[in-house]
Amino acid sequence: MRAIRGFLLRARGLVHKGRKERELVEELESHLRMQIDENLGRGMTPEQARRAAILKSGGLEPAKEACRDRGGLPVLEAVWRDVRHTARLFRRSPAFTAVAGLLLALSIGANTAVFTLLDQVMLRRLPVKDPRQLVMIWTTGPNLGGNLGSRASSYPMYQDFQKRGEAFSYVFCRYSTPLSVSVGNEAERVTGELVSGNYFQALGVAPAIGRLFSPESDDRVYKGHPVVVLSHQYWVTRFGADPGVVGKKILVNSYPMVIVGVSAAGFSGIDPARSPQIRVPILMKPLMTPGSDQLRNRRNQWVQIFARLKPGYAVGSAQASLQPLFSQVLQAEVTDPDLRTVPKSVRDQFLARRVLMEQAANGYSDLRRSYSTALPALMSMVGLVLLIACFNVASLLIARAAARRRELAVRLALGASRGQLVRQLLIESAVLSAMGGAAGVFLAVAMIRGLLGFLPAKGMILALSAAPDWRVLALTVALTFLTTLLFGLAPAWRTARVDHWSALKGAESAVAGGGGAARLRKSLVTAQVALSFLLLAGAGLFVRTLANLKQTNPGFRDIDNLITFQVDPARSGYSLDRLKAFCKQLQENIRSLPGVKSVGFAWIPVLSGREADWDVAVEGYPLKEGDERQVFVNRLSPDYFRTMGVALLEGRDFNDRDEGARLPVAIVNRSFVERIFGKENPIGRHLGFNSDPTAKPDIEIVGVVENALNEGVREGVRRQVFLPFAQTEFPYGSAFYVRTSAASESMFAALRRKVAELGPTMPVYEMRTLANQLDETLGTERLTATLSAVFGALATLLAAVGLYGVMALVVARRTREIGLRMALGARRGAVLWMVLKEALGVLAVGLSVGIPAAYWLSRYVSSQLFGVAPTDIRTAAAASVILASAAAAAALLPARRACAIDPTQALRHE
Amino acid sequence: MTEKTDVRQGTLALMVLKTLETMGPLHGYGIARRIEQTSGDLLAVRYGTLYPALMKLEQEGYVSAKWGVSDNHRRAKYYALTSAGKKQLAKEAREWDRTTAIIARFFPQSEEAS
Asked: Which residue, of A49, A72, A95, is where some domain finishes?
């Protein structure tokens, strides 16, 4: 403690040097004057008194000197001197400083940027009580029913877990759904979350104002809790943080509800990438998702289940304790009349389902799942770029150290200790990396903004922020120091071993850099080549993946002139009949717009990631063992296929007569026909979705269409069954598709007007062209491809610069040898080849390390690829060719310099 | 003329602390004079030795310093013993006693011999 205190005071002395010094002088002078006073008192003359005082106390200057040593910190002062010396040195070689600083700033900035994203999407813990106790619970298939969203369970299953799960202090559930909120006369669409009554208690989240839900008051009565909790952000942005909102009545999906409170600031929910604006008790589900109840249906999985572990339980033990309960519930479910006729093999599969559990300290996000391979891959790549940049700066510093051997030798000869020289060199590195780090932070902010631009932002609230937080800053600082250490130590260590006599004598090797320095730099460049190959090969794979995905035929034609938008009349309180009439009328009204070629609409928008998969039964094709029965279902209007540009292969499209339930009809896609019917004609056959398998399939197939994408490019084409929108018994939302002849964007306003004419308060959302939508589904791929290409190019450039430096050094060192060879008759071509050969040697060694490493690493990205094998030969060859050309270009300049050596000059060169 | 000895750093610190304990807050000149007097003018305290010692004590937190005005109206820096300084003084005094006791055991006959 004392030592630290003393150190701090001395360090302060260093900072307040001027003031301290003045105080000291004043104190010493007051001492002297008191002595003089006393001497005068003894009867001396003023002159004598002064002389005697000075004699007695000693000189003023030596005393000041003694105190100065004590007052400041000699080591710190020396370091400060070194720092200023370093600044002078850097000012004198601005090119070196700029290049080294820029390299570091770029790579540190890029690292910070990628890490900021990685941190927010994947690492950050939820701002709730004891986040490490949280787990997510889901189960393996088959559920023999419908699934909505990822990792979903049925609501009754949630209730079983909640009531009977032993390992948990809380089990809670959630379901995300868009909601229409009207305050006064203004309707707007928000992201809503239906939550179990214990949601906030389980998470340990407090209200900002009002109250939050509780199991006692908000989780008891079916459809009986018309209450809403606002998110803090929505409260601030929509209601201006008005404390009077508590008790206020609003309409949610045209149903009157009361705002009871606002959740705590900073709490955005379970999904870090999408935060809901309002939360509603889950027992309100029938009113929040009109037409779909599901609270008692065990065959439909839609809620995500989370739980808080009791102390003493870990994920593994909790999962093991839940499995018997789950199996028991399945045993009971399988006796359900609906499942009685399921074949034994399917039944066994059903009974063998497993409970899965995962720690959810940082919540759960679909975005995270799609980025969980991409972001770590990018992080590794950008980390490699940093490593390569460090090698470059190290190489530059070694070159400088070699060039400065004489300077250092002089300082050694004048009595500087080796420790002091090493300190000086380390400080140079520290200053350099501090500069790089500081500039890197600024670059990072700009880069994060760019990165966020890659994420699909439309139609959801993105809770990701562009500000690098303190943890990321800390990481940057750590990176900076690691960098310093990496490239500061090597030259410092080498210099400390300088034999200063030979350096002073100016032996040739000392002037141009010792053989050891060249070897070290050569191995650095070899490593750079190897790493660059990794990055280039990776970039090649990702770029080809993106290209393959883009070239995949979506099945829709001319998607630039295809506009889509969505309306949700049910959430504005429309009944089923009114909704059908509304959609049909809107279709007619839009068709009459000038510039519109055709219009259609669908229940589930394509390429949105949404899906409805139902189990199908086909007449005359009894279910075989192990048969995959699930098909993707959509409900469509007449003219949908024509609008989308999907060809009708056989039969007919839906028409206005396909209404009501009298004669149910269906259209299937080619993939379905090939799978079920093979070469037989499917027209006139029947299929059904009855949960009662004894009922005869009664839906007649009237048409076959060409394959088209449903979910996304990567998911490919599924077996699809299309039903008429007009025959639905449930009030669904609908996605409109409008084919136009004019430039699409100009039509947006006209389309909005048409909707407003028909339903003045009807919110219109997600209006864009299908081309844009297709593009957005490729956000991850575009991010990966673009960044990896940039990183690969950067790495290659860095390796080329490194190689150039080394080859220049080699040529300089071998000037005499080359001169001698030329004097003895070596031709220019031979000299050129000699130098190139050395560069190609470095390349070959680098590749011989890089290629196997890339081969080995490629397995980690294989899930990210599309249409290209991770060990693709052409990609590897292209990467090698790029590197080889870069290496040749880098070596050519020094090689030509070698050719231009004048033998007579070179031989005199000593 | 008697030869005056310069004090050593380690012992000087002890003397300063002891002086401040007996005299209360005192300026540098006062401390020097008091030490010289107590030593029977056998010691000479130069300010080249005194002030670095005072600075060290201040840095270690054993004394505190404050500007004030002396009896004859001169501005001077006054040093005072802190509670940590008191403890340190007690500790060092004990150690000093022990050291002198031990040293004394090595020279039991020296008085008889002289």
From this structure: A72
